[in-house]
C-alpha cells in the first residue's frame, strides 16, 4: 500500500509541486506502521508526553517512564496512579501532563473509553471522544488517528513543523497550502510523515 501511495504522490507532485516531488524522492517510501498489541492507555500516555515537547525530550521521558514501570514489574496502566505522582514528576512529567494521564486512566478503568469502540469510529467521532478527555486537544487526536489507528488522510493544523513545512513546499509554486492539501487528498497523513522526516 505504501508504494502505491508513494507512486501516486510522485505523479501528483511531478505535475503540480516540484519541491514536493524532490522531498518524496529524497525520503523514499514511508509506511504508516500501526503498532500491534500496544495498549490504548500507553498510546494516550505517549501522546500526552509528546505534547509541546521536542522529540528528543519526549523520547527521554517516555523511556524513563517505561523503565520505572518495568523496574516496579508493572504495566504503565498499573504504574501511573495517584500513589506515584511524585515519581512521575521526577521522571519529568508536569502537573498538567500527569493530570491528563490519570484522567485517561480513569476513563479506561471506568469503561468510558474502550479501544475496540474507538477502532470502529470515524475521525469525527474519534475526535469528539478523545477531546472529551481533559488535556487532549486537536493535535493529540490527530497523532492518535495517524499513529495508533493508521488513518491516511489526517492533517494537523496544530503542528508547527507541518505548517512551516507545507508553506516552504508551496513558496516557489503557485499553490497555497490549502491547494496542496487538496492535491494529496486522501493521503494527507503521508504528506505529514514526509515533512516530519525531512525536519528530523
Features:
single chain; 200 residues; mainly alpha; Endonuclease Iii, domain 2; Endonuclease III, domain 1; 2 domains
How is this structure best described in words?
The relative contact order is 0.15. The longest helix has 17 residues, at 55-71. By secondary structure, the chain is mainly α. The protein starts with a helix and ends with a helix. It has helices spanning 2-16, 18-27, 40-50, 55-71, 76-79, 85-91, 95-109, 115-119, 123-130, 138-147, 160-170, 177-184, 188-199. It is elongated. The chain has 2 domains: 2-32 and 154-199, Endonuclease Iii, domain 2 (Orthogonal Bundle), CATH 1.10.1670; 40-147, Hypothetical protein, domain 2 (Endonuclease III, domain 1, Orthogonal Bundle). α11 (160-170) crosses α13 (188-199). The chain contains 13 helices and no strands.
Number of domains: 2
Rg calc: 18 Å
**How many H/I helices?**
13
Question: In sequence order, what are the helices and strands, one letter per element?
Answer: HHHHHHHHHHHHH
- Beta-strand fraction estimate: under 5%
Question: What structural class do you assign from the helix and strand content?
Answer: mainly alpha
CATH architecture of the largest domain: Orthogonal Bundle
Counted beta strands: 0
Q: Could you please say which CATH topology of the largest domain applies here?
A: Endonuclease III, domain 1
Distance between the termini: 24 Å
CATH-wise, what's the superfamily of the largest domain? Hypothetical protein, domain 2
Q: Summarize model confidence as the mean pLDDT.
A: 96
**At the first level of CATH, what is the class of the largest domain?**
Mainly Alpha
Low-confidence stretches: none
- Categorize the overall geometry: elongated
The description of the largest β-sheet is: none
